[in-house]
Design a protein that fits this description.
Aspartate Aminotransferase, domain 2; 2 domains; seven-stranded mixed beta sheet; 373 residues; Aspartate Aminotransferase, domain 1
């Protein structure tokens, strides 16, 4: 087998490709002596709002804080319930807990996104919001979710951390809810050199409130209107992101092409993954397949020098931290079954065609030679 290590992510290679134009940007920020707030952060917010087709954007220091600030600004409080899926990164649930509210889980569809029918079943008199998670860069069925929210008078906060540039029914990810919450963590399609995030919204009053919340609740240097957070995006990260925004369309396009190569090679009898939908765009933050004998396949690929990941092997309702919520194994059977079958493959924009073919052919070989039995 080819022992050359094929990395799941390769941020060092991204830096090599970009340092010629990023180094002057970094030097300019450091030389300016202005590291927090100001024109460069405002420019980033303006451009992000344009991309997401919303009226406003607020730059923050993480996707998690985008969720926390949204919940805070929208009045979610102790005793309120927020419906969300159990198969997300922990931040979607922890943000609800941090605000004092109670996360209530709803099972997912075969594409790993929250099932609108299960949302309806989870609604109680205490329900105040829905937090759908656009997992893998594929937007949830927002038409159905918005209908539910309207019928039950619920707030919608999109966890769009993985879905910058994604589209559902012709509308941009993040533009459906009261807020859309994004991450610019180094592993995202639009990635900073450190943590970062932002909120998009069409509400000016909500935008103004979140801007106060990210800065201690200060209305000026000396007056604190409410006790809040420290959640500002650094000028350095905003400047790096502004440069990388110039290549975002290209990054997404390459990831889509890579996904297409995988799709064309895989033996569909053994490998399944969500199919494209009309008038939608999936941006492939991750490329996730579902297979039997996932752990054995992953070990086989590791021995072949191919790195993979699992997003996520333990559903949130089965995590030790979630024990107080009272859930048990079997409560969300679709999510639990998927957690044993999902495997994230290398999909990043620095891959070569022959590397993607190497991964796909190795998987086909494993699954077709009886190793699956």
């Amino acid at each position: 087998m080819d022992k050359h290590i094929l990395k799941y992510v390769d941020l060092a290679k991204q830096w090599e490709n970009e340092k010629e134009f990023l180094l002057p940007v970094i030097e300019e920020v450091l030389a300016s002596g202005s590291y927090i707030g100001g024109e460069k952060v405002f420019d980033f917010e303006t451009r992000i709002a344009e991309i997401c087709k919303t009226k406003f954007a607020v730059a923050l220091n993480s996707g998690t804080d985008a969720l926390v600030c949204s919940l805070h600004a929208l009045g979610i409080k102790r005793g309120d319930e927020v419906i969300t899926p159990p198969n997300s990164f922990v931040a979607s649930t922890s943000s609800i807990v941090h605000i004092g509210a109670t996360p209530v889980f709803a099972d997912v569809l075969e594409d790993q996104n929250i099932d609108p029918n299960r949302i309806i079943e989870a609604i109680t008199p205490k329900t105040k919001a829905i937090m759908p998670v656009h997992l893998t860069g594929r937007v949830c069925e927002m038409n159905k979710i918005l209908d539910i929210a309207k019928e039950y008078n619920l707030i919608v906060i999109e966890d769009a951390a993985q879905s910058i540039g994604s589209v559902f029914n012709g509308e941009m990810s993040g533009s459906f809810g009261h807020t859309g919450c994004f991450s610019t963590h180094p592993l995202k399609n639009l990635n900073a050199c450190g943590d970062g995030g932002f909120i998009v919204t069409n509400s000016e009053s909500l935008c103004d409130r979140i801007k106060k919340l990210r800065n201690h609740g200060l209305v000026n240097r000396n007056i604190v209107e409410e006790f809040a957070h420290v959640s500002r995006m650094d000028v350095l990260q905003a400047s790096i992101l502004m440069e990388r925004l110039k290549k975002l369309d290209e990054v997404i396009s390459v990831r889509q092409e890579n996904a297409g190569i995988y799709d064309s090679i895989f033996d569909k009898d053994f490998v399944s993954r969500p199919q494209p939908r009309e008038n939608c765009v999936d941006t492939f933050h991750t490329y996730v397949i579902q297979v039997d004998n996932r752990d054995r396949l992953r070990d086989y690929l590791k021995k072949a020098g191919i790195e993979t990941a699992i997003h996520y092997p333990i559903p949130i309702h089965l995590q030790p931290a979630a024990k107080f919520l009272g859930y048990k194994r079997g409560d969300f059977p679709v999510c639990e079954r998927q957690s044993e079958r999902i495997l994230s493959l290398p999909i990043h924009q620095n891959l070569q065609t022959n590397e993607i073919e190497r991964v796909a052919n190795a998987i086909n070989t494993f699954l077709q030679d009886g190793s699956r039995d």
